Amino acid sequence: RFVSAGPCFSEEERPPSPDIEFDSLEEFVLQPAQQGATVKCKMTRDKRGMDKGLYPTYYLHLDNEKKVFLLAGRKRKKSTTSNYLISIDPTDLSRGGEHFIGKLRSNMMGTKFTVFDNALHPDRALPDMSNARQELAAIIYETNVLGIKGPRRLTVIIPGMGKDSERVPIRPRSDNNGLLMKFQNRKMDNLIELHNKTPAWNDDTASHVLNFNGRVTQASIKNFQIIHSKDEAYIVMQFGRVADDAFTLDYSYPMCAVQAFAIALSSFDGKITCE
């Protein structure tokens, strides 16, 4: 059994998110988490009403008493590759809507994903690209030697941070100089490379385990932690199951909510999902 789980499935309460105040939801979900703080969220999957559960809607809320809504996401139907729209309105998930905040797009194989914000396609942007969309993340799934039964291997590339803790804007004119290509060519200036933490083998449970410190209560192939290779103790993001259609998603600097939510959405995608 290859699972990643919380420590011995303890039934302890999930520690809630600290209270977070913000004026603009749109600004908050695109802003990196404050240094030294972990934003703790809950992600839910709603399979009702959408083509027998083929196109569930995913919601992200702050995991505290107020359960403040942050983001919603859903796969687009008539798209040749997996394409998820991300919205700051739980009911308006339209591409042309004013609440559209970003999207997640996969390659044909469904193994690599790019996350974009809601600005203009490069073809429609100004010549100086100042209003062109930014690439917020690239997500790469590697097939492991054990096939689908082993722990997944995951690489995440995100833009680096400037002196003022602002994200360095990455606005490629084409996919040929986007994050995925930069990573492939090892042109990593102003980029941050993250990986999932390799779960440890536990002889007692005959499974692979990660310590989520009470934030995850159910074993699932989907559970993962994202770390910086230079500091494996620093968890930039963690994601794991707490019920059939409920998951905790926690993220820290330099990640923002849209990046973390999109990474979680990619883990549900059909080509790599193995429940």
From TrEMBL:
Keywords: Cytoplasm. GO terms for cellular component: cilium; cytoplasm. Residues 30-269 form the Tubby C-terminal domain. It comes from the Eukaryota. It is found in: Cytoplasm. One of its GO terms (biological process) is protein localization to cilium. One of its GO terms (molecular function) is actin filament binding. Gene3D superfamilies: Tubby Protein, Chain A. PANTHER family: TUBBY-RELATED, TUBBY-RELATED PROTEIN 1. Belongs to the TUB family. This is TUB like protein 1b. The lineage of its organism: Eukaryota, Metazoa, Chordata, Craniata, Vertebrata.
